[in-house]
Amino acid sequence: MKLDVNAQGVYPIAPTPFHPDGRIDEDSIDRLCEAYIAAGATGATVLGIMGEAPKLEPAESLAVATRFIEKLGDLPVIVGVSAPGFAAMRSLAHTVMERGAAGVMIAPVPSLRTDDQITGYYRQAIEAIGPDIPFVIQDYPLTLTVQMTPKVIRSIVQEHPSCVMLKHEDWPGLEKISALRGFEADGSMRPISILTGNGGLFLDFEMERGADGAMTGYAYPEMLIGVVSLQKAGRRDEAHDLFDAHLPLLRYEQQQGVGLAVRKYVLMKRGLIASDAQRKPGAALSAAARGEVDYLMGRLAKREAELGLGGRIVAAA
Amino acid sequence: MKLDVNAQGVYPIAPTPFHPDGRIDEDSIDRLCEAYIAAGATGATVLGIMGEAPKLEPAESLAVATRFIEKLGDLPVIVGVSAPGFAAMRSLAHTVMERGAAGVMIAPVPSLRTDDQITGYYRQAIEAIGPDIPFVIQDYPLTLTVQMTPKVIRSIVQEHPSCVMLKHEDWPGLEKISALRGFEADGSMRPISILTGNGGLFLDFEMERGADGAMTGYAYPEMLIGVVSLQKAGRRDEAHDLFDAHLPLLRYEQQQGVGLAVRKYVLMKRGLIASDAQRKPGAALSAAARGEVDYLMGRLAKREAELGLGGRIVAAA
Amino acid sequence: MKLDVNAQGVYPIAPTPFHPDGRIDEDSIDRLCEAYIAAGATGATVLGIMGEAPKLEPAESLAVATRFIEKLGDLPVIVGVSAPGFAAMRSLAHTVMERGAAGVMIAPVPSLRTDDQITGYYRQAIEAIGPDIPFVIQDYPLTLTVQMTPKVIRSIVQEHPSCVMLKHEDWPGLEKISALRGFEADGSMRPISILTGNGGLFLDFEMERGADGAMTGYAYPEMLIGVVSLQKAGRRDEAHDLFDAHLPLLRYEQQQGVGLAVRKYVLMKRGLIASDAQRKPGAALSAAARGEVDYLMGRLAKREAELGLGGRIVAAA
Amino acid sequence: MKLDVNAQGVYPIAPTPFHPDGRIDEDSIDRLCEAYIAAGATGATVLGIMGEAPKLEPAESLAVATRFIEKLGDLPVIVGVSAPGFAAMRSLAHTVMERGAAGVMIAPVPSLRTDDQITGYYRQAIEAIGPDIPFVIQDYPLTLTVQMTPKVIRSIVQEHPSCVMLKHEDWPGLEKISALRGFEADGSMRPISILTGNGGLFLDFEMERGADGAMTGYAYPEMLIGVVSLQKAGRRDEAHDLFDAHLPLLRYEQQQGVGLAVRKYVLMKRGLIASDAQRKPGAALSAAARGEVDYLMGRLAKREAELGLGGRIVAAA
């Protein structure tokens, strides 16, 4: 089951769980997968930036991806294959596809600047992995420092039939979604799936601009799923109510450098992973920060109770 | 009345209001000043990045600063004097102090990288403006690309007695406030005032970490004033309630590049300035974005009503 | 006499001479102008990056430009008008044109990244200064961090009839010259003048790729003039002999940050300016560095004698 | 035989030779090794930036390093182990040391900015590889964007006894060598070996400032060896004569992005490698560029003949 342009819904970005001594924690992978399935996720993405992919050795990367693929069963898994060189990218892409991945995600290398450099990079990447593997463009300027205009994205989409999705995490990025959907409307770009990232910080409006869903790692994926469902059902105010209830914590998670520490801490407190350990280099939460997250989680529970949300998935039937 | 290390409260960052044809709108300056005074602001900051300072000619900069100083009466005014060269910085700093400014704010030039380069830059800047003008360090890595560690800030503070305040807008920055307050506690740095910026996105917790107040341009300064007052009065939950009510809009304002357009649009809708015009280069809001802001303002009014806040200043007596 | 697309030859980038106390040294401006005329320069460029333009107050900038324009008489003077805002750019551009400048030079602001941002910036700049002032694109990625592809330059040229020249200082940049001349050959871009900068480090081959001359501040402008003349006369080996004789010193000058200190020191030793003082921030030469420059100047004199060049201008018959 | 602080002489940075189809060319590795030995190199460095290390798969990296180690016999080999994550760095470092490497070279990751971030990174790296492997700091701001002050280098040296060498390629960097040697003289830093890179562009003066030799990939390593030997023998003018003869070509090689293409082309023309192929992404030389290199090689041969150098090693006995 390969990824295609009709993909929608929520693909949580999965963290890579570690034991406190740095070993990969397979049991927590399993628990995460169960939670994603239970929450109603459409798929999942592994070995992304938040998955600490560059800290893994090649064999570990493969083992992590494989375990997620197995445990997620029917759910499509997208694997990040970004690498400093194309040899490693090709090798990882082919192996994970053989193991059952639905597609791969490719981020540009940070040194790219001009439009031509960016389209040239994707040309070489697709030459390396071949034209048959569905791929996702990761557009994340804040971290990657590469700025892709809508026109550049259109060029990549039109040049490569195997491009099926944009992971949109430009900031600000609402107008970019509108521009791309405009290209589709005027016939200058074939339709693709757009899932949004950036921690979910603008998910409420991204859905209204035409996104198909979310691909991000917020520690309460059921909120992402709820907002996406409610917006698709046209229940705008409810979608914003749910989103706003989570925004104080979501905003707290959205801190460059310590965001993953917050996320793993919340997932650990929620029982989804056993430890919030990161491999080095990685920021640890101070006692004060842990107290702040505890406080926000308490307020979230209270606010959800007020709204009658109860911390569970919002069915949008 | 010069700025000193005891400064606290809220210093809104004032936008520079323009007529649609690009001329400076003095009447709107007056109206902004009245609103700041009515809201209970402690002072104000003009000619900052959000004040479109680089788009003004020197005579205009001086005229804008002077008008704010006059109209704000007893309230201390801080004037941004950041400039590519020290000659212009010295000239502007001296003139505005003669006209009644309380102090000046200096941002590092974007090319600085190492700790020594940063401390060296402030050394030359203070040599240029002289040791008698109270100054504020602007620490805004997201826009300025200069990263100052707590130790670097301490060096600048200890070297220059005229350094009285840090405009803190690192992101993430909570641990930085704790580190600086720790330096004061262990005696390695004399106490200074810390006002936080970054659009207010973490103001709720910044106050708990030891900030003295806020210096930022969120279009509802009364919220900033309310949160600062409530936190100082130890009314934590109420502070967060007020903050959270505004967070969806505040988050929307916090978009690099279009943030000022959102801010001016809200200020215009609130009647604080006559036009949301910016000088070029400047991003305009799309119709979709205006609709989103309208929607958020509507939800804010409703939420404030629910909380019994009524859109007015929260007295923390 | 306005600058047009037929401009060629050598336009030295003039430093701004200061007295040791930081005042502008008008006498040295006069001496520089005499030397440029005597050496056979075609024109000159003032208030560039090497002219310490950002360290001047507006009135000083105007005074410096005006004096150069007066003293250079019939020689066309290009004035750098790059500024953080368009108000200052427009104001300076109009005033210097009234005083007799031949054209202006505009560098992009360092924050520009995508092709559209760059062309958009020039659109706004030309809207600000008006369509009647001949302008030069400054393409200097090493310092400005903005990367313009040949296609972007072509877009700017085609959109703005008042664009008459490219100051080419990309590094590496030889293929860029070939690409632009190729655009002219295939009819997709109207012809413009291309003068090369980058300290002259590739002038020998830039002329062979189709450059029209040089616009840079190497402290022996007669070498630049000689190489340009010899190459135009088809005397390739002699051009390289002359160039290679200067390369050890030219290479030494080409050090980011201290290059201007080297250049001013050499100009002072040659008697072209009275002092090598820079305004702050500015790097000073260590005693060791001065010794190295002295040594290189000695070797240059010896090598020129060997080649029978005698330190004077090479007439290209 | 492990690398220690007494290392001196020339360690060419070895390219990784490929067949035109992208396979590694082991025969050319052997030929390069023979040439380095014949030229009098002291050692060699492999898997550096110029060695296209990020384009190799892990098994290939190991194979390349191992072959160089075997073929260079008694000559010490330094292996670049820079990696996005510490797991891969530790794994490669340990394996190559077991296979006979003399030490490893570690470059900082490009995201580091403050002094504390840089020293913290090396702390984590050494924790990962352990305290027993001699390591080289690579200080290459132009490519890596990380700026290390002399004080930061001193901190790393003092904290880690296994730090034995600095690969110095700051630009400009002459004062940095003087500063570090000054630290040794005043007793604040223990002595280390300093070999200089940056293509050799300032090797002539770097030796005079106190460098112990060169570690760079200029395609005529015998020139580097000659200049180092002559300078050590106090034959300054001869060292500069030799250096200046090569400077036109060396300068041409020193072009970011295409430099490796020039270098491989020259090595191929000299018969040291069979093909100038690079793995993607990699810039190819245009016909014009190849013609320019041919011309410069011709001029070099002529100039060496004039100077009686004959293209061979200059014995400094």
CATH architecture descriptor text of chain A: Alpha-Beta Barrel
Q: Assembly state here?
A: homotetramer
Order of helices and strands of chain A: EHEHEHEHEHHEHEHEHHHH
Structural class by helix and strand composition of chain A: alpha/beta
Across the major sheet of chain A, the strand order is: 1-8-7-6-5-4-3-2
- What percentage of the residues of chain A does DSSP assign to strands (E)? 5-15%
Q: Radius of gyration of chain A in whole Å, from Cα? A: 19 Å
Q: Biggest interface pair, residues each?
A: A-B, 27 and 27 residues
How many helical elements of chain A? 12
Question: Mind describing the biggest β-sheet of chain A?
Answer: 8 strands, parallel
Instruction: Name the helicity range of chain A.
Output: 40-55%
Give unreliable regions of chain A as ranges: 313-317
N-to-C terminal Cα separation of chain A, in Å? 26 Å
Spatial shape of chain A: globular
pLDDT averaged over residues of chain A = 95
CATH class of chain A equals: Alpha Beta
